[in-house]
Amino acid sequence: SCVPQSNVDIPLSCVPQSNVDIPLSCVPQSNVYIPLSCVPQSNVYIPLSCVPQSNVDIPLSCVPQSNVDIPLSCVPQSNVDIPLSCVPQSNVDIPLSCVPQSNVDIPLSCVPQSNVDIPLSCVPQSNVHIPLSCVP
């Protein structure tokens, strides 16, 4: 565990701030590559559970806020690509459960807030295209 500030390579848990490569759990803030659970804030690549805020690529569960690519469950806020369950807020692509609020394409369940593409059931509020069960 550690709390690096920049340009660091950390294989285990830590709370780096920027420009870090972390293969395990951590809470980086920006420009980090994290393969496991973490709570990065921006510009991070995380293959497992995490709570990034922006510019992250996360294949599993996480709670990113913006610009993230997440294949599993998560609660991103904006600009995210999430294939499974999540509760994004805006600009997200989510294939599974969510509850978007507006401008979303959701075939199943989800709980995104805006500008999301979700293939499963959801409970969108407005401007949504939903092929399955939902409560818009």
Overview of the molecule:
By secondary structure, the chain is mostly beta strands. The chain is built from no helices and eleven strands. The protein has strands at residues 8-9, 18-21, 30-33, 42-45, 54-57, 66-69, 78-81, 90-93, 102-105, 114-117, 126-129.
Concise summary:
With 136 residues, the chain is mainly beta.
Please write out the topology.
Layout: E1 8-9, E2 18-21, E3 30-33, E4 42-45, E5 54-57, E6 66-69, E7 78-81, E8 90-93, E9 102-105, E10 114-117, E11 126-129
Parallel strand pairs: 1-2, 2-3, 3-4, 4-5, 5-6, 6-7, 7-8, 8-10, 9-10, 9-11
InterPro entries: ODFP
Q: Give the overall pLDDT as a whole number.
A: 38
Strand arrangement in the largest pleated sheet: 1-2-3-4-5-6-7-8-10-9-11
| DSSP strand tally | 11
Helical proportion, percent range: under 10%
What's the SSE pattern? EEEEEEEEEEE
Largest β sheet strand count, sense and barrel closure: 11 strands, parallel
Q: What separation lies between the terminal Cα atoms? A: 44 Å
Radius of gyration, in Å, reads 15 Å
Task: Kindly give the count of domains.
Answer: 1
Report the portion of residues in β strands: 25-35%
Which segments are poorly predicted (pLDDT under 50) over 5 or more consecutive residues?
1-136
Q: Indicate the multimeric state.
A: single chain
